[in-house]
Amino acid sequence: NSPSTRIKSLKTGNGSDLQIYAYCDHAPPFTEKEVHSKLAEYRVSGEWFKLCAETRSMITEIRKASGAIC
What we know:
The protein is mainly α. It has helices at residues 3-11, 32-38, 53-66; strands spanning 43-45, 48-49. The longest helix has 14 residues, at 53-66.
């Protein structure tokens, strides 16, 4: 899915303002499962994570490793 399509599907049933901080347009350096595992203690619910220093650090790491666009 494109980022815009993904954000639309995530907004369904969610009243919060959602923002894309990074996305990879090619093979990312980590699988989604690996990212979820690394950030498990910051999980709010399902695909939602608390935005804090640790999750920001993971976003930065993914961006640097993959040439992410944002």
